Amino acid sequence: MIRIMPILFVIALFLFVFFFIKNRSGFSTCKKCEGKGYWRGLRGEKTICDICKGEGHIPKK
């Protein structure tokens, strides 16, 4: 039990820092293409997202 607590603390600290930095970013993931910048068409071709113009992210408002 004593060995598990420091490991859980390190994991919790890592997750806190990760989500804190992620939320401070000036961009958010494009919802239409799910951050890929494209999606697969019916025949398997890549279609570039027209909202984010293929970048996968859009500026936060």
Structure characterization notes:
The structure is a single chain. With 61 residues, the protein is an alpha+beta fold. Helix content is 34%, strand content 20%. It has one domain (4-59). The chain has one helix at residues 4-24; strands at 27-29, 38-40, 46-48, 57-59. The protein has a two-stranded antiparallel sheet with strand order 1-4. The longest helix has 21 residues, at 4-24. 5% of the residues are buried.
Shape: elongated
The pLDDT mean sits at: 83
Please identify the structural class as seen in this structure: alpha+beta
Distance between the amino and carboxyl termini: 45 Å
Protein topology:
Layout: H1 4-24, E1 27-29, E2 38-40, E3 46-48, E4 57-59
Top keywords for this entry?
alpha+beta; two-stranded antiparallel sheet; single chain; 61 residues; 20% strand
Structure in a nutshell:
The mean pLDDT is 83. The longest helix is centred in the N-terminal third of the chain and has 21 residues, at 4-24. The chain has one domain (4-59).
